[in-house]
Amino acid sequence: MSEVVKYFYKGNEVDLIIYVTSEKAAKEYLKDPAPSKLADVVEVFKVFTNADGKGNEGTLGEASHAQLENEFGKHKKIEEIIDLILKEGKPNGNQGSLASNYYKGQA
């Protein structure tokens, strides 16, 4: 299994998290970012937040469309949002297997 890494974005309205395949893959992407290369970096094309919308701990659920619009503006594609989170966020440590780390008990 790949070693998934959580990327944390400290937002103005809500804090967001994405999962990338590895920190190495994220660094390579950031050297020459292009939305067409995201598939090689992103573990799952979803953006997550916790129940409070602040911080990077706790049980995560998928961020709502409204939360993403409030943070990034209307008409942004998920690829654009993930690209921004990679560019402006920071890695938050090795997370092991993705299946055991997101939607705990909900998968």
TrEMBL record:
> What name appears for this protein in its UniProt entry?
Ribosome maturation protein SDO1/SBDS N-terminal domain-containing protein
Entry-linked SUPFAM superfamilies: FYSH domain (SSF89895)
Signal sequence span is none
User: Its domain of life?
Assistant: Eukaryota
Domain Ribosome maturation protein SDO1/SBDS N-terminal: from-to ranges? 4-93
What the entry lists under InterPro entries is as follows: Ribosome_mat_SBDS_N_sf, SDO1/SBDS_N
